[in-house]
Amino acid sequence: MPTSRIRYTLNDAVGDPKSWAYTWEIADDVTFGSTCDFCGQDQQRLTYEVTRGEESLCICQRCVGRYPVTGIWDGELLDQATTRATIHGLTARQKQKTCQDAIKKIQAAAPDAPLSEVVVYFERNLQLSPQCAAALFTAMTALPEPLDPRIFEIQTRSKAHQDEFGALDDQGRTVVWPALSPQQHRRLASLGYAPGVHTARRARPANPRSRQSQFPIPRMSALCEPAALDVAQETTAKTES
Ligand SMILES: [Zn+2]
Fold it and tell me: What's the CA-to-centroid distance between 126 and ligand 1, angstroms?
């Protein structure tokens, strides 16, 4: 029932978002199979429980950011900024715990895999470098049940991390690729770093011709700006080195 057209519309039964209050319970669906009860968007990982009297719903991160759901902590009504900050902190803690549990599971399933550095790296950064991700996801194949690698955040923002990804062998890039966002895919593919199996459908952020034909938007500023920015950063990096 939820289509892209109604994705971000508040379900009629919800009424005033302020009439709902957080229970501060967060569900972390590592299969990305949850649906938001506010807007109907599916394929959600993190959802947040909200209640109104006897009713209870689970809402997605986007709705958390979009609607002023009431936050009450220790009987005290929080302002919106504090409510958001509290949710943000709880979310970070939940994500960290999920990743730590996943790493422990992988270590148990692949006791011989060299993962001690990965553990140290994750504890320090709460994200994985491309090299750590490759080591972890290679070991992950030993798990009896597959785990969605998208639960981990992979660092690709800096030139150093982009090049670290590019320096992985094709096997390494192939295991890390499914954990990356579409935006990360476009960036790395534009650098020629997409693994072999994905190079056929390489995206071109600097010249998004296929997107333009789908959505006839006069100015593609949203897409062109980050690309221009990256070029500028690279030039700076080059002159510095
Ligand atoms: Zn939602």
Answer: 25
